Amino acid sequence: MKMADINNLLANLKQVKKTGRDSWKACCPAHDDRSPSMAVKVARSGAILLHCFAGCSVPEIMDAIGMDMGDLFPEPMDATVNVVRGNKHAFNARDAVAYMAKWLNPELFEDLDPQAMHQEFIDKYCPGLSFDVYRNGTFAYPPLSENSTAT
Fold it and tell me: 72 in helix, strand or coil?
């Protein structure tokens, strides 16, 4: 599985210290941090997870180092959707990681809003589709026909 570029991210941080196989601590670039207060981890999916214990949001952190939110994920922001055959639900890779992070560690990702991310994806990459995630729930694609295949 392809990983996001962790080396590029770490090169933009100060006082980086390895704390585990795929985890580090560093000073948060979004606030005046003199002692490392931010956790950095590469998830099994290859996505990079960030958490500032002082409360800075991930977008604030990424803005402070001049990187895009998409740099945290191994696939491009416009990645094709993955279809789960049982329920025929579809997410882009970024939203799937966000939903899982929030579900598994809600206390670490209080500032993360997976629904807002999903709505942003729909608005940006599905022009003409009028769908409100907050009102209708997670977007589900129509069932696959018997003759089609998912990739």
Answer: helix
The torsion angle over the Cα atoms of residues 29, 30, 32 and 34, rounded to 10 degrees, is: -40
Q: How many domains does the chain have?
A: 2
Is residue 54 located within the same domain as residue 82?
A: no
Domain that includes residue 17, residue range: 1-73
Could you tell me if residue 151 is inside a domain?
Answer: no
* 46-59 pLDDT tens trace: 889 999 999 999 88
For residue range 76-111, what is the model confidence (pLDDT) as tens digits?
Answer: 443 334 333 333 344 456 666 776 676 677 777 777
Please check whether residue 122 is in contact with residue 139, taking contact to mean a CB–CB distance below 8 angstroms: yes
Q: Please report the beta strands in 2-149, taking only residues with DSSP state E, as ranges in sequence order.
A: 14-20, 23-27, 38-42, 48-52, 82-84, 89-91
Q: 1 and 63 share a domain?
A: yes
Q: For residues 81 and 29, what is the distance between their CA atoms, to the nearest angstrom?
A: 32
Cβ atoms 61, 50 nearer than 8 A: yes
* Same domain for 36 and 49: yes
Distance between the two ends of the chain, CA-based, in angstroms? 15
Q: Please tell me whether residues 135 and 86 are part of one structural domain.
A: yes
